[in-house]
Write a structure and sequence with these properties.
single chain, alpha/beta, Spore Coat Polysaccharide Biosynthesis Protein SpsA, Chain A, 5-stranded mixed sheet, 12 helices, 10 strands, 18% strand
Length: 332
């Protein structure tokens, strides 16, 4: 079968400690190697990121603004694939047939806006990271409480069909292994003003309210090394959200969320709400990682508060957000 060309876009900044796992999994796909393009937008790494990327045949571009979203815009201008996969350096594809099934699924389902990844825990992944990525799926208790639950539409083989619940688009789509058609990104002018969840939301608002998942497949999201790392990342994400607030007109958090942002923060700062959901999770899922929920909830509020204080008190320069990025490295 003559499969179409597919482009991976990976923004990096001092990611040498984790990037090889991402690139190795891409090169292990059962997709024809000459139909896979890897484009890395690097924000001025001072470690071995660029050299490692070259070893895997990736095209390395300069990302002058250094942050991930600007890097994705830079890469979108240069790619040549008909399909685009956005992955971060801390993402690792779980199955060698992921690309092939994703492309075939989108070819068969033109009504779908893209393919969303599952985030199963990797062997040896620390329990906090596994809880945030696999158990919560949304990687942050505040966002988890605000987001609505997607609705399953049916299954065809390995391809699952999902949509938004009636009356709300408050579910974040678009990052960590998400697969788009390049034509859809062009229609949304993604290369001019890219932000992960905003592009997916624009497609949904334009009428494409369905997306696909591949059964059990997606990326191992090596999000955090521990609790301190999680707080630092919440700080950076909060800073990023505030910096985008005046640049983008829409956000999934405004699309009738399950709980308002202030209410979600109050929930996470208390003991009663998180413990309540911990008990539900333990009973329903038999997953002891729910014990992390009260701790992660309070840590999320700490990171958010730190990010707000940083945004409003520190000098805002071109490198401000990039300087908040923790060093990415897989634990031994």
């Amino acid at each position: 079968m003559d499969l179409p060309k597919i482009s991976f876009i990976i923004p990096t900044l001092n990611a040498a400690g984790i990037l090889p796992h991402c690139l190795r999994a891409i090169r292990a796909q059962d997709y024809p190697a000459d139909r896979v393009e890897i484009v890395i937008a690097d924000g001025g790494s001072t470690d071995d990121t660029r050299a490692l990327a070259g070893k895997f045949g990736a095209l390395v571009l300069d990302n002058p603004q250094r942050v991930a979203e600007s890097g994705k815009r830079v890469a979108l201008e240069k790619i040549s694939g008909e399909y685009v996969v956005f992955v971060d350096a801390d993402n690792e594809l779980t199955h060698p047939d992921f690309l092939r099934l994703a492309v075939l699924g989108l070819q068969k389902n033109p009504q779908a806006l893209g393919v969303e990844s599952y985030y199963p825990a990797a062997p040896g992944m620390n329990s906090l990271c596994a809880f945030l990525t696999q158990t919560l799926h949304i990687s942050d208790p505040i966002s988890w409480l605000m987001s609505v639950s997607p609705v399953p539409l049916g299954v065809e083989g390995e391809v699952e069909h999902w949509t938004f619940p009636a009356g709300s688009f408050a579910y974040p789509l678009g990052a960590n292994g998400f697969v788009y058609r390049k034509t859809d990104l062009d229609a949304m002018r993604a290369s001019a003003d890219f932000e992960d969840t905003r592009v997916a939301l624009q497609l949904a608002l334009s009428g494409k309210k369905e997306w696909l998942r591949l059964s059990r497949r997606g990326v191992h999201h090596h999000l955090v090394k521990g609790l301190a790392d999680f707080i630092k990342k919440r700080r950076r994400q909060t800073y990023h959200f505030l910096s985008l607030r005046h640049k983008t007109g829409i956000s999934w958090t405004q699309m009738k969320p399950r709980a308002s942002a202030p209410l979600a923060c109050i929930y996470c700062a208390t003991v009663v709400g998180p413990v309540y959901h911990t008990l539900i999770g333990l009973t329903r899922d038999r997953d002891w990682r729910w014990l992390w929920h009260p701790i992660a909830s309070f840590a999320s509020v700490l990171g958010l508060t730190w990010g707000v204080l940083t945004y409003y008190t520190a000098a805002r320069t071109a490198d401000s957000e990039a300087s908040l990025q923790p060093v990415q490295k897989l634990p031994k």
